[in-house]
Amino acid sequence: MKKMSVSFDSSIPIPDFTLPSTEGGRILGSRDFRQHSNLVILLMHSWSCDSCRRLVASLHDRREFFSWLDIRVVVIVEEPLIKLAGAEAVLGPEMTLLADEDGKVTASFREGAGNDHPLVVIADRFGAIFEKMELDEGEEIDFGEMESTLLFIATLCPECGRPDGESTY
């Protein structure tokens, strides 16, 4: 796993995007998630890839932890929406599946990462990226590392995104 961490005060935001979802083809984007939930975003190249689907299943298995911390899991797949038919049944309501047919959104997230491997991005409710984890083919997500980052984000002020008690003056 290649890990790229970003400090809490960095100004590296998630890219602005809008993509069709498997929720009735509804268009969703980065602005739909801001101010609502912290995010775990999984970027993968194909829904038909067995190792990528195992990553989705491992995220789904932790849905109670994500729910407890009010985290939204978003899966972005570089495929047309039609190839994702039926996939939402696997995800359940606590995960969002988006189709990035031309791969432009995925490419904007991949700055500083490889092109073909799954990528996990952790961001706060303000859209600031805290961590990127590039996974080799077949590699599992390091949930210890992920949970540590998510728990840290949970300690931040819900109004400003800074550590509780830190002065902004």
Q: How would you characterize the overall build of this protein?
A:
The structure is a single chain. The chain has helices at residues 30-33, 50-61, 63-68, 88-91, 104-109, 143-154; strands spanning 2-5, 18-20, 27-29, 38-44, 71-77, 95-99, 119-123, 129-134. By secondary structure, the protein is α/β, with parallel strands linked by helices. It has a single domain, classed as Glutaredoxin (3-Layer(aba) Sandwich). It starts with a strand and ends in a 15-residue tail after the last helix. The model has no long low-confidence stretch (mean pLDDT 83).
The total strand number stands at 8
The name of the CATH superfamily reads Glutaredoxin
Main sheet record: 6 strands, mixed
The chain-level mean pLDDT equals 83
Q: Which descriptors apply to this entry?
A:
169 residues, alpha/beta, Glutaredoxin, six-stranded mixed sheet, two-stranded antiparallel sheet, globular
